[in-house]
Fold this protein.
Amino acid sequence: MRLRRIGVPADVAGRRLLADRDGWVVNCLFYLIVSGVLSALWRAAAGDGDIAGYSAAALTWYIVTAEAATCALSIRLIEEVGDEIGSGAVAVEMLRPVPVIVVRLVAEVGRGVARLATLLGPGVALAWLVVGPPPSAAGAVLAVPALVLALAANLCLQHAMAAAAFWLRDTRAMWFLYQKLVFILGGMLLPLEVLPDVLRDVAMVLPFMTMAYVPARLAAGHVEPVLLLVQVGWLVVLAAAAALAFARGQQRLQVVGG
Amino acid sequence: MGAPARDAGPAIEAVGVTKRFRGASGRAVDAVHDLTLEVAHGERLAFIGPNGAGKSTSIKMLTGILHPTAGEARVLGFVPWRERRALAERTGTLFGQRSQLWFELSPRQSLRMLAAIYGMDRGAEQRRVAQLGELLDAVDLFDVPVRDLSLGQRMRCELAACLLHEPHILFLDEPTIGLDLLAKRRFRELLVTLNEAGGTTVFLTSHDVADIEHVAQRVAVISAGRLIYDDTVPAMRRTMLSTKLVDVGLERPATPLALDGVSVVAQSDSDVQLSVDMARTSIRVVLASVLDAWSVSDISVVDPPLEQVIAEIYSERRR
C-alpha cells in the first residue's frame, strides 16, 4: 500500500510531463544546444591534454550529465512553489492525509526522472557521436542512481528554500540566486576541480555538489562509489530541512478568502 | 463510509473560535470572531454570508488548514489543526475556486492519484470510481482532460474527488459559484441525494440564498466574522425568506396594482420590480394579477440578495 502511495504519484507526474509535449520538446532542444556548446568549449580548452584530470572526452560526458541533472527540473521551481504558498493554493494539498512535502517531492521526483530519461537519450547519443563511449562503463552505471539522487537532493533544497514563502511576502528573487549557486558551486558549468582552491574547498562541503558534480564526475570516468554515499547523506539532511520548513510553515499559513 | 469518527460526539463542534489576520498595514482584523457552532451527524448545514464574511476562513479552520487565534473545535472527535491528516481521511472538502484535479490529466487519472494518496488498493479504487461515475452521472467525463471540461462538468468531477474515500463530512466552499442555473440545480440535487443515501454530513458555504432553500435543513449566517443567525430553514423561511422579488418586463407602462404584501421596488416604463411578502400574498396570486392587469413581455421570480436577508436579520435582532 505504501509503495502505491509513492508509485502512483510518481507515475502520474510522468504522465503530466508527457501531456506537455511542447514543453518537453523545447526543454530537450535547450539541453542539446547548451550541452553541445559547453562541451565544444571544454574540448577546445583541453585539446589533446587534460584539465584537472579530465580529458576532452571525459569533459564531454561530464557536461552532458551535469546539464541533464539540472535541465530535468523546472528552472524556476522555487518561484512556482513560493507562489503556490503565497497565494494559498497549497491549502488544497493540505486536505490530504499525507504530508504535503511528501506528495510534492514524490511527484516532482517522478516528473524529474521522466524528464531525465527523455533528455539522456539525445544527450548520450550526442556525446557518443562526438567523443565515443563513456570513459568507464562502471562510472556510467554509477551515474544513473547518482542522477536520481541529484534530482531528489535538488528538489529537497528548492522546497526548503521555497518554504520561506510561509514567512516572507515575496520569494521570487530566490530562484535566481539558487540557480547561480548550482551553476558554479554545483559543478554544472565546470568540474569543481577547475575552480580556485578556496572556492573548490567550499564547494566540496556544500550540498550543491550533489546536484550536478557527483553524477557528472562518475559519468566522466571517475569510479568513486563513495560519492553516492555523500549524496545520500546530503539527501537525508535536505529532506529533513524541507520537511521541517513545511511543517513549521504550514502552521503560519495565511489564506484570506476562498 | 471511510475511516470511523473518533467518538460519538457531534460531527462538528466549535467553541469561541477566532481567527485574527494581520493586514499589510499591521492592523489586526478578526476574519472570524468567537464562532460557536454544533453540527449533528447527517445534518445539512448552509453556512452563508456575503463575500468576506469569514465563511472560507471558518472552513479552513474546521479542516485544519488554518490555526485559530483562539477557541476550540472538534470535527469527528479530532482537533482539526492538530490532527489534520487523520481528519482528512474522514472528510472531503471542495473549494469552488480551487481545483484538486490536475488540469493536464483526465479526472480518472487524478482520481487514481488521489486513491493512492488515500491508501486505497487498485480494486477498491476501480469499484468506487465506477460507483461515483454512476451516482454523479459523470462516467463519460472521467476520461476527458480536465482542461476540456465545462465548469459544471468539472465540479461534478471535483465532487467525485471529494467523495472517493467515502467521507463522513463534506465541506463545500462555494461549490455553486460560477455555475449556470441548470448546473446549480443538478449540483444541489446531488448533495441532497448524497446526504439522504449515505448519511454524509454536509457543511455548505454560499452567498446564494437558493442554496439554503434547496440543500440545507439548517442555516447559519455569518457576517463580518460573527455568527448572527442559526436556525432551521423552515424557521428562516417563515421569517427571513418570506420575501421574493418579481421582475416584470412590460410592453406598455404599468398601472398601479393594489395587493396586500406587494410593494414596488423599482419602476420604469418598460420594467417593474415587485417585492412580495409571501406570508401575506402567494406568488401564484401575484403572478395571476400581474398577467391579468399588465401587458407583460417577460416575468421572473428571484430570491432577494443575501445582503437584503442579512439586513433583515439585523433589523429583526434590533426589534
User: Anything to note?
Assistant: The two ends of chain B are 46 Å apart (CA to CA). Residues 22 and 278 of chain B are 44 Å apart (CA to CA). The interface with chain A takes residues 21, 31, 51-52, 55-57, 60, 63-67, 81, 84-86, 88-89, 93, 95-100, 102, 104-105, 109-110, 112-119, 121-122, 145, 173-174, 177 of chain B (CB under 8 Å). The first strand of chain B starts at residue 12 and ends at 22.
